[in-house]
């Protein structure tokens, strides 16, 4: 019957079109998921200007209003593509009609403050510990699995001493992110070591040239801790910002050198990369299925080539809310409820699960890893009290029993 055969041909054609559409849709989702994963894991070398300097009256600067520039506190301003730097104080005026803000200028470290493009930053300080803070420091190298990694060493008064802090900056950040913490640690008698890790600028890259969300970077911090112990450290404090917090947590979980760590300070840390990636997928309107597929691809052997990673990035292994019972070190956890980059939820949950180990301090107003900027006195008081508490226990005995030679960590 012609009608039936025609209907059958139409159905077959529709089925073929439907199958092609489904295949194309699946391929598109796979490609989109791979692209999203690569964006997350790829270091960003280009840091474009994000604010406009409109006027420079005496002792002041007028900037375009942005989500960053309208927040109270102390901040930095990179000038001339990063070659210059100024330190800014609090808000003086906000002009809603003109969409501008006026802030104090507390100092110009390099370059000239003049109208034009600039980049707002939360480091506040620029340079090295000696140039920015007047703290005697040494430029050393830590022998890591990828080769020598530059580090700053800020000895305690009277020598390096036996108490060392290892400070770990965040994803895409520079060591200058840690400068804000050095004065309070130095005053409390700690020697500070500020290492670099793979895929930082001007240091050896990992085998794939991509971030592994702490799942490989922890080995570079392991090398830094081993360096500290070989230089006389008997007690180690770890301090991590953002992804630096995720790196610290992986180190504590996977390195035999974790026995020498007495306590940990985390600022705006990634407690669960799955939560962070889901947050950014929503922000960028990535379909939920694509975001979920992206996270799955990172951790699957079949997805390594598509994502471009040498080692699988198992996001589930970074979920410290789920793994809360595995924590063994006292933690001072600082996080802002208004953190736009790393949502505060997992930090709150971790603190609720482990009140025996986690001292949780929540900020308001501050954006990502800018708690010090909005309330420096509070931040320094909390850190000073925490790092001077007697929580070391039997760390000295643990140092004596710590690994020697090659600390492979696995």
Automatic annotation (TrEMBL):
Residues 1-26 form the signal peptide. Keywords: Signal. It comes from the Bacteria. InterPro entries: AB_hydrolase_fold. This is AB hydrolase-1 domain-containing protein. It comes from Knoellia aerolata DSM 18566. The lineage of its organism: Bacteria, Bacillati, Actinomycetota, Actinomycetes, Micrococcales.
């Amino acid at each position: 019957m012609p009608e039936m055969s025609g209907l059958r041909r139409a159905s077959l054609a529709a089925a073929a079109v439907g199958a092609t559409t489904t295949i194309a849709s699946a391929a598109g989702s796979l490609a989109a998921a791979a692209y999203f994963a690569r964006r997350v894991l790829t270091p960003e070398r280009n840091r474009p200007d994000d604010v406009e300097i409109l006027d420079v009256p005496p002792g002041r600067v007028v900037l375009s209003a942005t989500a960053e520039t309208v927040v109270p506190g102390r901040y930095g301003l990179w000038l001339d593509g990063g070659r210059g730097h100024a330190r800014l104080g609090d808000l003086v005026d906000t002009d809603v009609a003109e969409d501008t803000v006026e802030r104090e200028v507390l100092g110009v470290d390099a370059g000239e403050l003049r109208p034009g493009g600039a980049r707002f930053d939360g480091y506040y300080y620029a340079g090295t510990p000696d140039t920015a803070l007047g703290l005697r420091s040494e430029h050393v190298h830590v022998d890591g699995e990828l080769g020598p990694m530059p580090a700053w060493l800020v000895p305690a008064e009277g020598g390096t001493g036996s108490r060392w802090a290892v400070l770990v900056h965040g994803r895409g950040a520079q060591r200058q992110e840690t400068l804000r913490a050095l004065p309070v640690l130095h005053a409390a008698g700690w020697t500070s070591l500020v290492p670099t890790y793979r895929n930082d600028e001007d240091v050896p890259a990992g085998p794939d040239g991509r971030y592994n969300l702490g799942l490989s970077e922890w080995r570079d911090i392991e090398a830094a801790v081993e360096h500290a112990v070989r230089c006389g450290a008997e007690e180690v404090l770890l301090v991590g910002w953002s992804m630096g917090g995720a790196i610290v947590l992986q180190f504590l979980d996977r390195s035999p050198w974790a026995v020498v760590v007495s306590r940990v300070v985390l600022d705006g840390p990634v407690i669960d990369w799955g939560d962070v990636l889901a947050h950014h997928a929503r922000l960028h309107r990535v379909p939920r299925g694509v975001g979920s597929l992206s996270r799955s691809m990172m951790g699957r052997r079949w997805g390594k080539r598509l994502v471009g990673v040498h080692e699988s990035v198992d996001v589930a292994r970074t979920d410290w809310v789920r793994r809360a019972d595995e924590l063994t070190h006292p933690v001072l956890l600082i996080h802002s409820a208004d953190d736009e980059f790393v949502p505060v939820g997992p930090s709150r949950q971790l603190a609720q699960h482990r009140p025996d180990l986690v001292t949780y301090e929540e900020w308001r107003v501050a954006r990502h890893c800018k708690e010090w900027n909005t309330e420096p006195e509070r931040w320094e008081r909390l850190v000073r009290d925490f790092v001077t508490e007697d929580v070391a226990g039997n760390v000295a005995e643990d140092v004596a029993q710590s690994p020697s030679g090659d600390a492979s960590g696995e």
